[in-house]
Amino acid sequence: MDACTVRQSFSPKDYKSDVKPIWCPGCGDFSVLAAITKALAALQLPPEDVAVVSGIGCSSRIPAYTRVYGFHGVHGRALPVATGLKIARPELTVLVTGGDGDGFSIGGNHFLHACRRNVDLTYVVMDNQVYGMTKGQASPTTDPDWDGSKLTPEGAGINPFHPLVVALAAGANFIARASSSDPNNVADLIAQAIRHPGFSLVQVLSPCVTFRPEQQQWKRQVRTAAVDVTDDPARAARRLMTDDGFNVGKVLYQGARPPYRPEAAPSATVAEIEAQFAL
Q: Is 253 within 8 Å of 175 (Cβ atoms)?
């Protein structure tokens, strides 16, 4: 057999870098990192055909821990960077990784428009309902009565942000929720999200054992969602609006909206570009 026709086989370790993660022992992000590499191996994507983009935060360190193209951006700006990359290099598989603070607070407006644009991206959000890297402030998804921070000793008193509801309303094409306590399921959902065209959101409940030690109980609280995937936004909305946040392990919405793929402009020489600005 011609050597050029032999397909290389990739394993999860082929997507891991030599950089050792520095998360706190017990952090759920270890499982999510393992799930991402398992998903890429399951899809047999060459590492050079994958890019991981992140913002700022504990979970946003993931590009350094992978052996693919990576971009560690500024706080809240991962999605516009990833959008530009995917439009410029549509042949790449582009993943975005981050946390609830980076994605839904300073990056909240970008989140809305990434869902609306429906570029073919997969956004993996590790949601621990706290700002872990900056020492435990309440985040957009924190319950209003959580009093575990000195900055909010009586609780934030603000209703939490519901990312899956917002994603559905804004136009996301694929919505799923998983728990880091089941990395094989996380890997399966990420692989499905990558395969599905358009903007895909995978929310992963990823406990912060340092600033939210009570979240160690999440693995006992989560349950497999007793629903089948739906392509009906109204049906998905009813499910999500009445959900307590602990139904995991399933695709909750899978739409058919075609992804945004602008036509590539013809390349121009430097001289042609300069001529456009000539006085």
A: yes
**For 27, how many CA atoms within 13 A lie in the half-sphere containing its CB?**
20
Return d(Cα 172, Cα 255) in angstroms, integer: 8
Tens of pLDDT, residue by residue over 103-128, are: 999 999 999 999 999 999 999 999 99
All structural domains of the chain: 20-276 (3.40.50.970)
Count how many residues are written for the chain.
Answer: 279
Helices marked H in 12-106: 29-43, 78-88, 100-101
State the virtual CA torsion across 154, 159, 162, 166 in degrees, nearest 10. Answer: -140
**How far is 274 from 241, CA to CA, in rounded Å?**
53
Cα–Cα distance measured from residue 11 to residue 262, given in angstroms and rounded to the nearest whole number = 34
What are the residues facing 151 on neighbouring strands?
Answer: none
Q: How far apart are the first and last CA of the chain?
A: 61
